[in-house]
Amino acid sequence: MTQRAVIDIGATWIRGGLVSVDGTVTQRLRIPTPKIGISGVVVTNAVIGILEKLLPTTPPGSGVGISSAGPLDLTSGSIASSPNMVFDRIDLISPLRERFSRPVSLINDCRAGALAEQAFGAGKGQTDLVYITFSSGIGGGVISGGRLITGSTGNGGEIGHLYVDGRYHLVCGCGGTGHFEAYASGNGIPRFYRRFCAEEGIFIETLPDADTILSSEEAVPARFRDELAVICGRGLSGVIAAYDPKIIILDGPVVRNHPDFVSAMIEQVDRYLPMPKVVVSPLGGDAPLIGAGVAAFNGRGLKEDL
Prior knowledge:
The chain is an alpha/beta fold. Helix content is 35%, strand content 21%. It has 10 helices and 13 strands. The strands form 3 sheets. The chain has a 5-stranded mixed sheet, with helices on both faces. Strand 1 (3-9) and strand 2 form a beta hairpin.
């Protein structure tokens, strides 16, 4: 079956694989995202190393799909000033085209996730959906009226930077305060928990990770989860008010590993507009990879397509 080589670049991992036209992912590879080096070229070289292993099993001259955490600069084909990555700039399209002489599609990972869900996942056949991932950060992809919302620079749908809180004033990785990502992402939850405990007069000697906080049966984490659910309810309410989707598809370790918390955040949604269906992605964390494949097959994700 015809396949495309795909890469998903996240703050923690770079994943690679082959995606077939029916959305099946095969021959998976994964390496930690480089965090040490003189420039973002170390990330580019890591991507090249994965593609060297994948491309021999794809048709000659076939396209490569790259999904990545943003923001993206699609004019230059690079990741630019991502709040969750070490390097200020990571060039991708030009060096990959030069190295492999193939078309390269670059698309935000959550926009890719939305394409995957519409083609093969919980949003199959839907014309109005929102995909939200709760991972190292929080990202979103929106399909409205059957069209993927990209914005003027390809970065439309940055749900993680919706304003959700004016009490705790947590600082987001982008430098803003009160942003959704600063509270409810995998990186943000422990920091929010520290601030919550400080306001409760509780000293924390060792800060637990997000999974531990969301799984604990102790009283303090339980109270914290109630507060976190309120924050998440505000974020989802903002998404519903902005996009009026038919379905919201949640993804990422925070929600995949903690379905009870998903129910808690849904209970906090402001019902100003009709409540859409809210589900956890059935694609098992592969939506950004699959969506990169959709982009590669269709030639999407390039500046000239926006």
